[in-house]
Design a protein that fits this description.
single chain; 637 residues; alpha/beta; Rhopdopsin 7-helix transmembrane proteins; Heat Shock Protein 90; Rossmann fold; seven-stranded mixed β-sheet; 14 strands; 14% strand; binds adenosine-5'-diphosphate
């Protein structure tokens, strides 16, 4: 028996690939997308066409293989018909990629009619040819005009049309889809052209379309890949939105910080004057209440700013030598006042051999300690708070081991992991009356991890809690801290006392808010320093040209010209009297990066509002000429 008339190897290969593709599209399922559905139907149609063509070429056209005439002719006609159908599907598939236009609607309808006409022609062809074929006259010997029209020209038209659709809409496609579509078309058309001019007897038939379907499948139709691309697009979009939101958040924080700190500055500053000058006990008590409310408002703002700094990666650990006794003193003084108000006992036990001279970020260590102690007071109604400080020494390093325990409300075991999440407050039923934002421990935890420190909690619900802190610090001097209480007592006795006197020094304070000028004047009253003021940058520039000042405190944000603009003018004035005068930026802007920005703009130093009396005095001691300053006692470090 002779082999089939046409070599079938490509058809069989196409068939195998086709089956594999059908399995893939079926297994992967389709998204709810038009193109996906059309593509799946496309692969099924091609499979049917492929089977028919294989059968036609294997049996239908071989005179030796005897099969009845009717199925033989049917195979013949169907194989041509499916050729057209598959290229028609190319047009449908191409159309799924783009929005419908008027012209395209016209062509779509035309294509539909053409496809219907082709089906009619196939039936006509079948009927016409039927009487003419016999076992000795196989179908392909018959005059074949309708078959040719069906087979080649309609195919070419459909493919060309699909290609034009892709070409016209190419701008709407991403690069990957564009390359995929045009390579797939190149393959299909290349194969058809090859077959038209082919003299070798090799027929690729379905191999071309299958190849191009694979290209489409991998290039644009793989659902996972499409999902991934869509997800990546969404992620990119979300990232942009998050960046935008973050920028707005920072701007909002900067503004809020400024807007809130400025009035608090006035409230706390003026209130401090009441405390210093009022004789009436009752009024002093009221003023203390104002102070504590003002400070707690300020601490909330500071917490929000700190957290935003940490999250923006802008929080830095600024290490410098410091005395642990002074840090401890500040914390203990602050907490004992609060403990006393609630009738709580506050015990402090410090290992007397603990080295006093340490090196680390004093401000942050104090903030951590105060935060944990504050919580102990806040969440305890009766009983006592205990602070114990020990250390582990290793050469020039020590780890501060701090234990803060209370006899307060305690924390449920399941709530412990939530303590360090920002904005998470636990056991709200019991804590409703306790003020808090849920930021404190989140900041403590983050600050500690920046210092390679740790925090752990042990708690019994209803009985009390103990927080264990480990903070690595460098040792700078071996002098032991000694009897901590002596220093503590010394520090707590007596009220405000100015740190220095400087009646010969003269400073210029520039601020557009009059009350702020009054606050600075009042805060420095006892130092005897002579103070001049200006309410605008322009006024400051004139004054700075006429008179020499030992230091200038310059508000940054002012209407018209701001401080940063006035600064270079003062520094470079012709015949100016303050070309080298220290100029300290006075600002309510305390958000991340503000300090660096002001220093880089040329300010000598930076002081945030609300102005703290001691911070202001310390700053002036640092920058006033030493021969004009007489320091008071030992407090002025
Ligand atoms: P808050 O501003 O609410 O005090 P924190 O972050 O400092 O925020 O604390 C988070 C939560 O942990 C608090 O709301 C409180 O429920 C719980 N907590 C913290 N310290 C203690 C403590 N010493 N005793 C009991 N609960 C505490």
């Amino acid at each position: 028996m002779r082999a089939a008339m046409y070599p079938l190897s490509f058809n069989i290969a196409a068939f195998i690939f086709n089956i594999a593709l059908c399995v893939l599209v079926t297994a992967n399922g389709t998204e709810d997308k038009h193109s996906n559905h059309t593509f799946r139907n496309f692969t099924y149609i091609i499979l049917v066409g492929n089977i028919i063509t294989c059968c036609d070429q294997a049996f239908g056209r071989d005179p030796v293989v005897m099969i009845p005439n009717v199925p033989r002719l049917a195979l013949y006609v169907l194989s041509f018909l499916f050729n057209s159908l598959l290229t028609y599907f190319f047009t449908l598939y191409a159309e799924t990629f783009f929005e419908e236009t008027k012209t395209r609607r016209f062509f779509s309808t035309f294509n539909r009619f053409l496809m219907a006409a082709i089906i009619v022609m196939a039936v006509v062809c079948f009927i016409i040819k039927l009487p003419h074929i016999g076992p000795d006259r196989p179908s392909y010997y018959l005059p074949d005009i309708p078959g040719y029209i069906l087979a080649y020209y309609s195919e070419l038209y459909f493919l060309l049309y699909a290609m034009i659709v892709f070409f016209v809409g190419r701008k709407d496609l991403n690069r990957r889809a564009r390359i995929t579509a045009f390579s797939a078309f190149a393959v299909t058309i290349g194969v058809i052209v090859f077959e038209i001019f082919n003299t070798t007897g090799i027929l690729f038939n379905y191999f071309g379309p299958i190849l191009s379907l694979y290209i489409f499948y991998i290039g644009v139709e793989t659902p996972d890949y499409k999902n991934l691309l869509a997800t990546m697009d969404k992620l990119e979009e979300a990232r942009k939105r998050a960046d935008e939101a973050n920028r707005s958040k920072s701007e909002f924080l900067a503004n809020m910080s400024h807007e809130i700190r400025t009035p608090i500055n006035a409230v706390i500053g003026m209130n401090e004057m009441i405390i210093r000058e009022a004789g009436d006990e009752k009024i002093i008590e009221y003023a203390h209440n104002i102070e504590s409310a003002g400070r707690s408002l300020l601490s909330i703002i500071n917490d929000i700013l700190d957290l935003s700094k940490i999250e923006a990666g802008k929080m830095k650990i600024n290490e410098a030598p410091y005395k642990f006794s002074s840090l401890l003193n500040d914390a203990v003084v602050m907490i004992s006042v609060k403990a006393k108000e609630k009738n709580l006992t506050f015990d402090v036990n410090v290992d007397e051999t603990l080295p006093d001279g340490l090196y680390g970020d004093e401000l942050r260590v104090r903030q951590i300690l105060v935060n944990v102690l504050n919580n102990a007071v806040k969440y305890t109604e009766k009983g006592k708070i205990n602070l114990s400080v020990n250390y582990d020494r290793k050469d020039t390093e020590c780890i501060l081991i701090i234990k803060v325990s209370d006899t307060g409300i305690g924390i449920r075991r399941e709530d412990i992991p939530k303590l360090f999440e920002k904005f998470d407050r636990v056991d709200l039923n019991k804590n409703k009356a306790v003020e808090g934002t849920g930021l404190g421990l989140a900041i403590v935890k983050r600050l500690l991890s920046m210092m390679q420190g740790t925090i752990e909690v042990e708690s019994e619900y209803g009985v009390g809690s103990t927080f264990f802190l480990r903070i690595p610090q460098q040792i700078r001097s071996n002098e032991p801290i000694g009897d901590y209480r002596t220093k503590y007592r010394k520090a707590t006795s007596g009220g405000y006392r100015e740190l220095f006197h400087a009646p010969d020094a003269r400073i210029l304070v520039v601020d557009d808010t009059l009350i702020n000028l009054t606050v600075v004047r009042a805060l420095l009253k006892k130092t005897g320093i002579s103070i001049e003021t200006a309410t605008s940058a322009a006024e400051a520039i004139i004054k700075a040209k006429e008179k020499h000042y030992d230091t200038i405190l310059l508000d940054n944000r002012m209407p018209g010209m701001d401080g940063a603009e006035a600064l270079p003018i003062i520094r470079s004035q012709k015949d100016g009297m303050n070309l080298n005068t220290p100029i300290i930026c006075l600002t309510a802007d305390a958000v991340s990066g503000a300090r660096e920005r002001y220093l880089s703009e040329g300010f000598t130093d930076y002081l945030t509002k609300p102005i703290e009396s001691t911070a202001l005095e310390r700053m002036l001691i640092k920058y006033l000429p030493s021969d004009k300053v007489t320091k008071n006692g030992q407090n002025n470090t």
